[in-house]
Design brief:
heterodimer, A: alpha/beta, Fumarate Reductase Iron-sulfur Protein, Chain B, domain 2, Rossmann fold, 4-stranded parallel sheet, globular, B: alpha/beta, FAD/NAD(P)-binding domain, 5-stranded parallel sheet, 34 strands, about 25% strand
Chain lengths: ~375, ~650
């Protein structure tokens, strides 16, 4: 007979690692029914909660690493359980106590972040190379805005365009902004969700010191992940800055009449906007990106059937961006198919992870000729 | 002045107090305080022997002041005041120190808790020194009762009181009494027909000589307090002559203007002039002025009802000139039984209510299975077919902090009832999606067992979504209910023809306004607050106002009726006594100082203060019956003209000084 005894020690480990919210779960299963994974594979969120309550968690299971932290379940949970916190606690228990095995891809990214300060493992001194020919100033104490593009647009050759487009817009408008030195490191949002709390803490201390000594007050970011941690997690650790996502900042410039989009170079395309989880569900920003797109002359904004609060994740959150998801299970593939079905020419994104995933999907699905993936800042730069 | 002789009694309250506070030490300490003649501690001061101790000491030791240090004065201050009175003293020569809720229950450190108890006792002893005897007065109570709401709760309460031959004003905002129960088909767990058991009560109410039914009316204003409330009711214009209407229904047949019937939950139409349902009480037509073409065109269009009304109850005069009436009367007590609203499930977009034709709410389904309902008792899809399979979704808007955190208490049982009716009337498969089955009442668990025998498919899990996007041929043309079967640990997709959402019961949308009118409170969930959740469940914190039924929170018919009867008993007990005992610790005005500024008048929550002319100026006057002694006026008076009996500056300052000495 295979009996299960509640294993108090395992529960304690999870609670200690921040899994306290699991206590509230009353096992209704709405999370499982809401979780997008269950449209492509089985992922029993409710059972993971129950196992954590009883200390029956299988720390060696690959399900420890499955959650994309998209917050669809948390948003609807009738008991308000912060399910992502529980998932993160289980990962922490594995990563810090060695109760299971960290997947290789994640381990390498974690090592790169801890060593080089970015997940790709590129040299820290190359962080600002994307801007070499763009006449971008370094941040000085009197500079109004720090532009923090995130590691992906800083290093990834294909996503650099996002940072370059943003800098181009800022240059054209004469915005007083600058880049911080190459001592800057990854914001740490995703590696924290992947359970590497120590790494996160050291990244945060580095960045807070750097920002504070340079007199940073306002940060504009391209990534909703940077936005989320700067805005919601850094303050608790002593870093209090005004944080704006590029879509918020650009929308406010349009509102103030400072950013005018020319009718002459309008974009006559059907554009579908994919809400990033960390802009939408995590931070409630739904309108600004749409406002920008709607003010681009000629552009026809269309919507996914599941937009805004119900938007499907690209699959890149919670550290999944560094891990491989088998063909047939990729949310970004589903999203591209949806975009095709809606008749879109361009998928507009507002997150570097979405950018990476949709770009990969468009390529691997052989749709590169008919479907483009563009960051909103790129579309604005084209239309300015 | 007489010598002040104080007795101090420290209650052990078993170990509730004595487990933390060293009562012996406190008693010994109290004995050293000035004017304390005797100081004791005892196991349970509230017990008869405990109270006898006090009485005996008053008589034998000549005590003229008493302090008991025990639980909250909310619990036992009245007990000890009575004991002091029985011992021959004025009950206000007593002071209560709370060393349980304020001390032993909230502290662990025995030494510090004991010191705090000593402080509290010392303060009480110093205060009681200054206490003065106060006179408790009696005032007459108006035996008439106002009942607000003509659903099952209001009707039951009204009948119980009226049967005792006391006058009841029953105010119902709809054109007919009957409430939600009238809309129900059969009632769980006995499955007796709702209207069969309700209509006899409705006609009893309608023709009871002691009930004045004010249907299609709303309470607008209430002033005064227990014993003598003044009530203002707006009786809405029906736009017919009530004395002539015979309820023949010809007007409704002839009226060409239609809209969704409220009573039929939108499953049928009603006319601009209509009688809400066949058994309506009063059985009178009512004209919807927002729909009636004659009224809207100021008499230029239509007028069919006028033409066909043989009784001449509808005339150009009634349609165009009839206005709302304001009716005023006095009552001594009020019973509020205003019921609930059904939660609107369209706010949960994933459930497709309002999007898919065959997603219904519970009340819609009730109308459908009712023989007198829009489908003649047949369970039908929008296209007229009978469903082959039906899903019943529990906890829609209940037990969910995004909507209502509480359990609505009736949904499990009516969900089971639907399963039975579907099996019986449509022979369809039933899938019942539940989180927990809560079948706690008499015969309820047995009903659950019966439904298990009838072959209902129970799926434990909260439904994630209802969609018409088919993934297989089997799902085509169906509504697919998606969720985790938490017992299987698998996602299930159940294709059905019809979905019934067991929508939560929620507080009436006008509950806030009603609470203001009646000066009662609401809980965080919006329902009216009872005075004590266990020991005073139908009273409100406002004396003389009682609450029954779903206005206090979701409950089933048996509980509602029991509560209604409880409110009637409360009202009858007051009527039977005939007088009310007024609070003695009330405010009083020094008219020589009062400047007549009126701040107190505006502030008084009981409308107990009124400016009155006195020797050429205006001064505040306190109505001793209405004043509850809250002290708001005294605290706000800029010239210090209003003081409180039993809360004099001398008494309060002595207590405060003693605490810090």
């Amino acid at each position: 007979m295979n009996t299960l005894s509640p294993y108090k020690e395992a529960t304690e480990v999870i609670l200690q690692a921040g899994g306290e919210p699991v206590k509230l779960c009353y096992q209704c299963g709405l999370c499982t029914g809401t979780c997008p994974w269950n449209t492509v594979r089985s992922f029993m969120v409710r059972r993971i909660m129950h196992e954590a309550q009883l200390g029956a968690t299988d720390f060696g299971s690959e399900d420890v690493w499955t959650c994309v932290t998209c917050r669809a379940c948390v948003q609807r949970c009738p008991r308000g359980v912060e399910i992502i916190d529980v998932m993160r606690a289980i990962r922490r228990a594995v990563a810090s106590l060695g109760l299971g095995i960290v997947p290789d891809a994640l381990r390498i990214s974690a090592k790169n972040i801890a060593g080089a300060g970015n997940p790709i493992g590129e040299a820290p001194e190359k962080r600002n190379d994307w801007a070499k020919d763009l006449k971008v100033r370094s941040f000085a104490s009197s500079t109004e805005i720090l532009y923090f593009p995130c590691c992906v647009p800083s290093y990834d050759p294909d996503v650099k365009t996002v940072a370059r487009a943003t800098a181009t817009i800022f240059n054209k408008l004469g915005i007083d902004y600058g880049l911080i030195g190459t001592q800057a490191r990854c914001c740490g949002e995703s590696i924290r969700k992947a359970g590497h709390e120590d790494t996160f803490q050291s990244l945060v201390q580095n960045n807070i010191n750097l920002f504070t000594t340079n007199g940073v007050k306002t940060i504009v970011v391209s990534s909703p992940h940077c936005y989320h941690t700067f805005k919601n997690e850094y303050p608790e650790l002593g870093g209090k800055f005004e944080v704006l996502h590029t879509t918020q900042y650009l929308a406010s410039l349009i509102e103030q009449g400072k950013l005018k989009l020319s009718r002459r170079v309008g974009i006559n395309k059907k554009v579908i906007y994919s809400d990033p989880c960390y802009l939408g569900r995590h931070n409630g920003i739904y309108n600004e990106p749409r406002k920008i797109l709607q003010s681009i002359p000629g552009l026809k904004l269309i919507e996914f059937p599941d937009a805004r609060e119900d938007a499907l994740c690209c699959g890149g959150g919670g550290g999944r961006i560094w891990m491989d998801t088998p063909k047939g299970q990729r949310f970004s593939d589903m999203r591209v198919e949806q975009a095709v079905a809606q008749g879109a020419d361009i998928i507009a994104v507002a997150c570097p992870y979405c950018f990476l995933n949709y770009r990969d999907s468009v390529l691997s699905m052989g749709k590169a000729d008919t479907m483009q993936v563009k960051d909103i800042s790129e579309l604005v730069a084209e239309a300015i | 002045m007489e010598e002040i002789r104080i007795g101090v009694y420290i209650c052990q309250c078993g170990l509730n107090i004595a487990g933390v506070v060293n009562v012996e030490e406190v008693a010994k300490y109290a004995g050293t305080l000035p004017n304390v003649v005797v100081s004791r501690h005892y196991r349970y001061m509230c017990s008869d022997p405990g109270q006898d101790l006090i009485k005996k000491d008053i008589q034998e030791l000549g005590l003229n002041r008493v302090v008991v240090a025990a639980c909250s004065p909310k619990m036992h201050e009245p007990t000890f005041r009575k004991a002091v009175e029985d011992g021959g003293l004025n009950p206000y020569l007593y002071e209560h120190a709370n060393i349980r809720e304020h001390c032993s229950w909230v502290h662990d450190d025995k030494k510090l808790a004991t010191n705090k108890a000593k402080d509290l006792v010392r303060a009480a002893v110093r205060r009681v020194y200054y206490h003065e005897p106060l006179v408790i007065k009696e005032a007459p109570l108006n035996p008439n009762v106002l009942v607000v709401g003509g659903g099952i709760a209001g009707m039951q309460a009204a009948l119980d009181i009226a049967n005792g031959q006391h006058k009841v004003y029953l105010v119902e905002k709809d054109p007919s009494i009957g409430g939600h129960m009238m809309q129900l088909d059969r009632t769980f767990p006995t499955l007796d027909c709702s209207e069969c058991i309700l209509t006899p009560k409705m006609s009893d109410v309608g023709r009871h000589p002691f009930i004045e039914l004010l249907a299609y009316s709303e309470v607008e204003e209430v002033s005064g307090s227990i014993g003598n409330f003044k009530v203002k009711v707006r009786k809405k214009a029906r736009h017919i002559d009530e004395s002539k209407c015979i309820g023949c229904n010809v007007c409704e047949e002839k009226c060409p203007w239609k809209t969704d019937s409220e009573f039929e939950m939108g499953l049928a139409k009603r006319k601009a002039v209509y009688i809400p349902f066949a058994q309506a009480v009063p059985h009178l037509a009512v004209v919807d002025p927002n729909l009636c073409a004659y009224i809207k065109s100021d008499g230029k269009k239509c007028g069919a009802c006028i033409k066909f009304c043989e009784a001449q109850a509808i005339t150009p005069e009634t349609l165009l000139k009839q206005t709302d009436q304001i009716i005023e009367f006095d009552v001594g007590t009020i019973i509020i039984a205003t019921g609930y609203d059904q939660f609107d499930p369209s706010v949960i977009p994933h459930y497709g209510y309002g999007k898919y034709d065959n997603v219904l709410t519970g009340l819609q389904f009730e109308r459908m299975t009712c023989a007198a309902g829009p489908t003649g008792g047949k369970i039908l899809l929008k296209d007229g077919r009978e469903p082959e399979s039906v899903a019943i979704v529990h906890c829609v808007g209940s037990r969910d902090q995004n909507y209502h955190e509480y359990c609505s208490r009736v949904c499990c049982m009516y969900g089971l009832k639907y399963a039975h009716l579907i099996k019986e009337l449509a022979k369809a498969d039933v899938y019942e999606f539940y989180i927990d089955m809560r079948c706690f009442g008499e015969g309820y668990e047995e009903f659950y067992k019966r439904l298990s025998e009838e072959g209902v498919n129970f799926i434990r899990g909260k439904v994630a979504k209802i969609t018409d996007e088919a993934l297989s041929d089997e799902e085509k043309g169906k509504l697919i209910v998606v969720g985790e079967d938490t017992l299987l640990g698998k996602i299930v997709r159940v294709p059905v023809d019809m979905v019934i959402l067991c929508s939560a019961l929620e507080a009436r949308s006008d509950a806030e306004n009603l609470a203001k009118i009646f000066n009662i409170n609401r809980r965080a969930d919006g329902f009216f607050l009872e005075r004590h959740i266990k020991l005073d469940p139908v009273a409100t914190p406002t004396d003389g106002i009682f609450i029954a039924g779903c206005c206090e929170g979701p409950r089933d018919i048996p509980d509602t009726v029991a509560q209604a009867e409880a409110t009637a008993a409360k009202a009858l007990s007051l009527i039977s006594k005939g007088t009310i005992t007024t609070e003695a610790a009330i405010s009083y005005v020094d008219e020589t100082i009062c400047s007549g500024c009126g701040i107190c008048e505006a502030l008084c929550p009981f409308q107990a203060i009124e400016l009155q002319p006195r020797d050429g100026k205006r001064v505040s006057h306190v109505n001793e019956v209405a004043c509850k002694g809250c002290g708001a006026c005294s605290a706000a008076c800029p010239s210090g003209a209003i003081a409180m009996h039993h809360f004099t500056n001398e008494q309060i300052l002595a207590q405060v000084e003693a605490l810090f000495s």
